[in-house]
Amino acid sequence: MQNRLRWGVVATGGIADVVTGDLRLLPDAEVLAVSSRALPKAEAFAAKHGIPRAYGDYADLLADPDVDVVYVATPHVQHHEVSRAALEAGKHVLCEKPAALTSADLRDVVDLARERGLFFMEAVWTRFNPLVTRLGDLVAAGEIGEVRSVRADFGFTLPHDPAHRLWNRDLGGGSLFDLGIYPVSFAHLLLGEPEVVHAHGSLVGGVDAELGMLLGYPGGAHALLGSSLVSPLKDGAVVYGTKGLVEFPEAMYNPARMIVNGVEHTHAQEGAGYVPQLREVVARVAAGEVESPSMTHDDSLAVLRTMERAAAAVGLSYEGVR
After folding, report:
1. Which residues, 6 or more positions from 78, have their beta carbon under 8 angstroms from its beta carbon?
2. Which of 66, 115, 61 is nearest to 86 (CA)?
3. How confident is the model at residue 252 (pLDDT cuts 50, 70, 90)?
4. In a 3-state reduction of DSSP, which class is residue 285?
5. Among all residues, which ones are annotated catalytic?
6. Which of 32, 165, 261, 308 has its CA 20 to 30 A from that of 158?
7. What pLDDT is recorded for position 181?
């Protein structure tokens, strides 16, 4: 690896566009290549972002010996396939969430990364937001006492269209795996993996249109979480402790404000908000590590197990989706 970590971006959708913009803000990273199933799309994306190499197939990008790390931004259903292929090609991987649709597929990728000594991380940018990081520190310091309850929601209204990826089971659609993963990961950060998972919601065309979750932890601590494609949920979060509370008034997945026992804290966002996460990848790869302590393989597996339990409670399953 050269002094600058050389990235390849797989897919050219909205999230790839925003994250690539943030990647270009890092002085020790270079976006070297991009791929799309349609070469003209890859070429247009490359021209927009000043990327020197464009490929019409991700296999060609993975065969490029100059690419060090791959950012997987495909639809959910392809995450396991592309991540596995990238690791087999000797590339480090940052994969958009959810990193896989089943625990078995995620375990397969994690085991391969560890076996090959390659870095692999699920891209949950919330874990690297400076205010969320500060939340972890103040909770550890006892600022609000023992955490007893977490409330978090993420939802918006999206007109039903079976062709849209969020309404299409074959593309890994639904509110839980695309939006609900943020509240679940947020609760996991504070309370760990739950003992009990209750869920209630509605299915439309084989995917969940909305889902409410009650997660139960030892000693009575709990989390009330929600995701929706049919209601504009508040998108905030509250953490209740025995000595106080922390509020995220909006965008709990990328908060700009945090109120701790009535005192407001803010931060100046870098780029579109993905810079801290991308900086972490660069640092861990440079250090020769296979995972980030802020978003470990076990974290990803535990969150996915929780989502699978919630999904099963409403009859949602992605088994067999490829």
Report:
1. 72
2. 61
3. very high
4. helix
5. 97
6. 308
7. 98
Percentage of the chain beyond pLDDT 90 is: 97
Domains of the chain from N-terminus onward: 5-125 (3.40.50.720), 127-274+301-313 (3.30.360.10)
What digits encode the pLDDT tens for the residues 164-191?
999 999 999 999 999 999 999 999 999 9
Name 320's Cβ contacts closer than 8 Å, sequence gap at least 6. Answer: none
Q: Which one-letter amino acid corresponds to residue 61? A: L
**Distance separating alpha carbons of residues 56 and 22, to the nearest angstrom:** 23
Please list the residues that pair with 241 across neighbouring strands: 147
Classify residue 272 by its DSSP letter. Answer: T
Cα-Cα end-to-end distance for the chain = 33
For residue 269, give the DSSP letter.
P
Query: Tens digit of pLDDT for each residue in 64-98?
Result: 999 999 999 999 999 999 999 999 999 999 999 99
Take residue 300 and report the two structure tokens written for it: 């990803």
Query: Among residues 39, 40, 42, which one has the least CA distance to residue 9?
Result: 42
Residue 76 β-bridge partners:
none
Return phi, psi of residue 52, to 5°. Answer: -70, -25
* Cα–Cα distance measured from residue 245 to residue 241, given in angstroms and rounded to the nearest whole number: 6
CB 99 within 8 A of CB 106: yes
In degrees rounded to 5, what are phi and psi of residue 12? -130, 25
Question: How far is residue 55's CA from residue 169's CA, in Å, rounded to a whole number?
Answer: 28
Residue ranges of E strands in the chain:
5-10, 29-35, 53-55, 69-72, 92-96, 120-123, 147-155, 196-204, 207-216, 222-228, 237-241, 245-248, 257-260, 263-266
